[in-house]
């Protein structure tokens, strides 16, 4: 991924000055009707942080499936590898950071939301049992060792000497309680919307006589370490029991390097360093996190010196920011894929030939170059590069409108009139991408296509209710997968009976079912590679792009973006 980013940077910054708004607009509007200028402008303001409904689901081999002792390599945004109390390592002057993202947190309860923007606030103060580096490698956090005892039982040794911000000591009971609060609606006064993020996990218990817990699954579960490293922040059992749900939603008591100093709901969240933090003390002494939904507001704050780092910088603004003396752009490929599912149960999308034609019809490379200014990567399968189960032999569909027209004829659906429904303003320049895709399809001589904008919440409600008949026939969505593992995307979207399924294929069902129960990593990976090949060949989606994360940063801060969309002050250093 690093090599890809270097190539992107070299190419992208040359394109900033040369790409014109007229070229982008003409491409996005080709063949499309029904959208006002206001809707197009709203689309350009789409963010990349929010993981709600569209998923911040999981995926990666991550390294401990064989039951071996987990590593503790450096590189996390969190604590030190030896667990000893660390010094801040910076000079005595305060180092205060202001960060701006697209949305405010919806709650301060770490188990009662599904938004990456909320995590970007809460993960300054809350920590998980395990953690990941920015590139997805599993590392220690509140657990120092982890091992598989049996295919359905996994043991975690809990770090000693850790305290919550209220001064109470972390215990294994707190860790077991945190897992149960997510997976069991009868625990902790909450039916957590994160339940499916710990798929297969049903219970956790403290090991008698040891500073450890055992996590139980309902069968073979090769995803336990990945899920625990990606989700389930640890809370104090006593603190949760003593508080009302309303109190938990506006207060924080974690074990992380920052403690809550001030919370102004809908305006800002302020953290200060926690002096008794168990790990390496971060450079920043105070962190303020604010939100601005408009791209122009965020970039304006950065350029005016009102904030130090902003997320979701529009590619059109990147050149100006990069050209400023005290600012720079940093980007990376995210864990989110954008795609356009087609319902297998309705014509014309019941035809494999027609679905393939839709992929050949769009010039994906041109869309990425002209609309995203190169900040994106074309895809041809559900699993992104670097993820466990990615099939490196699969290439994206090439642009071939003649082949597309021929396949439409073979499908028996020449003259079809179709619509692509998309969530307005949800993802970075996604509105323009979908409108461009519809324009390319509409240019075929034997198909008419129109892009139709929808409210994000309304659309996802139709997609995720488990009833395929309420779904649009052809739509666009994005899906984040912070476990770096194929299962959390493919099982959810391509397995009959899940809340998001739109496609049924007996062979696909067999492959994914076997992979979900396969304990051997090599066998499991091969099953996912075969499933990805089938998804490509059967054209389950019109494949679009891997979304890129683009940040504007003040040069007084040293920081490299994470793939999982988290931007956390504990990973930021004072520039020398």
TrEMBL record:
<dbReference type="Pfam" id="PF00496">
    <property type="entry name" value="SBP_bac_5"/>
</dbReference>
<keyword id="KW-0732">Signal</keyword>
<comment type="similarity">
    <text>Belongs to the bacterial solute-binding protein 5 family.</text>
</comment>
<dbReference type="InterPro" id="IPR000914">
    <property type="entry name" value="SBP_5_dom"/>
</dbReference>
<dbReference type="InterPro" id="IPR006311">
    <property type="entry name" value="TAT_signal"/>
</dbReference>
<feature type="domain" description="Solute-binding protein family 5">
    <location>
        <begin position="138"/>
        <end position="498"/>
    </location>
</feature>
<keyword id="KW-0813">Transport</keyword>
<dbReference type="InterPro" id="IPR030678">
    <property type="entry name" value="Peptide/Ni-bd"/>
</dbReference>
<protein>
    <submittedName>
        <fullName>ABC transporter substrate-binding protein</fullName>
    </submittedName>
</protein>
<feature type="region of interest" description="Disordered">
    <location>
        <begin position="30"/>
        <end position="95"/>
    </location>
</feature>
<dbReference type="GO" id="GO:0042597">
    <property type="term" value="C:periplasmic space"/>
</dbReference>
<feature type="compositionally biased region" description="Acidic residues">
    <location>
        <begin position="35"/>
        <end position="94"/>
    </location>
</feature>
<dbReference type="InterPro" id="IPR039424">
    <property type="entry name" value="SBP_5"/>
</dbReference>
């Amino acid at each position: 991924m690093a090599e890809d980013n270097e190539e992107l940077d070299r190419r992208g910054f040359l394109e900033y000055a040369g790409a014109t708004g007229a070229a982008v607009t003409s491409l996005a509007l080709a063949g499309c009707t029904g959208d006002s200028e206001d809707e197009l402008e709203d689309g350009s303001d789409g963010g990349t942080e929010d993981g709600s409904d569209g998923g911040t689901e999981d995926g990666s081999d991550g390294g401990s499936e064989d039951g071996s002792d987990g590593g503790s390599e450096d590189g996390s945004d969190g604590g030190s590898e030896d667990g000893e109390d660390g010094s801040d390592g910076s000079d005595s002057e305060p180092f205060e950071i202001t960060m701006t993202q697209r949305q405010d947190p919806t709650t301060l309860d770490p188990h009662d939301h599904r938004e990456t923007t909320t995590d970007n606030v809460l993960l300054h103060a809350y920590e998980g049992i395990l953690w990941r580096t920015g590139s997805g490698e599993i590392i220690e956090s509140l657990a120092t060792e982890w091992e598989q005892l049996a295919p359905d039982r996994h043991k975690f040794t809990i770090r000693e000497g850790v305290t919550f911000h209220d001064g109470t000591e972390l215990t294994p009971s707190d860790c077991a309680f945190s897992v149960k609060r997510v997976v069991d609606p009868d625990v902790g006064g909450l039916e957590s919307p994160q339940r499916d993020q710990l798929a297969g996990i049903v219970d956790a218990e403290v090991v008698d006589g040891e500073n450890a817990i055992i996590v139980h699954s309902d069968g073979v579960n090769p995803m336990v370490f990945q899920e625990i490293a990606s989700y389930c922040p640890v809370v104090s059992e006593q603190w949760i029991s003593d508080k009302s749900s309303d109190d938990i939603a506006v207060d924080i008591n974690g074990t992380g390097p920052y403690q809550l100093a001030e919370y102004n709901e809908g305006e800002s969240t302020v953290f200060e360093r926690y002096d008794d933090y168990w790990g390496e003390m971060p450079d920043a002494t105070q962190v303020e996190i604010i939100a601005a939904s408009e791209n122009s507001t965020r970039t304006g704050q950065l350029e005016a010196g009102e904030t130090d780092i902003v997320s979701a910088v529009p590619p059109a603004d990147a050149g100006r920011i990069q050209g400023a003396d005290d600012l720079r752009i940093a980007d990376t490929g995210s864990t989110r894929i954008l795609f356009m599912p087609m319902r297998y149960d309705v014509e014309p999308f019941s035809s494999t030939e027609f679905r393939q034609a839709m992929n050949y019809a769009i010039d994906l490379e041109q869309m990425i170059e002209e609309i995203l200014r190169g900040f994106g990567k074309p895809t041809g399968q559900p699993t992104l590069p670097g993820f466990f189960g990615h099939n490196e032999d699969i290439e994206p569909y090439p642009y071939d409108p003649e082949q597309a027209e021929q396949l439409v004829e073979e499908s028996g659906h020449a003259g079809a009139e179709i619509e692509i429904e998309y969530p307005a303003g949800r993802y970075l320049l996604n509105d323009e991408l979908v409108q461009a895709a519809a324009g390319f399809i509409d240019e075929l001589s034997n198909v008419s296509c129109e892009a139709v904008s929808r409210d994000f919440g309304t659309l996802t409600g139709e997609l995720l209710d488990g009833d395929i008949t309420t779904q649009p026939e052809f739509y666009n969505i994005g899906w984040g997968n912070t476990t770096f593992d194929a299962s959390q995307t493919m099982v959810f979207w391509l397995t009959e009976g899940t809340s998001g399924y739109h496609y049924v294929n007996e062979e696909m069902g067999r492959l994914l079912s076997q992979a979900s129960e396969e304990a051997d990593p090599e066998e499991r990976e091969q099953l996912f590679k075969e499933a990805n090949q089938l998804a490509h060949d059967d054209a389950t989606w019109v494949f679009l792009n891997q979304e890129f994360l683009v940040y504007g940063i003040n040069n007084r801060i040293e920081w490299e973006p994470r793939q999982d969309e988290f931007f956390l002050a504990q990973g930021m250093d004072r520039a020398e």
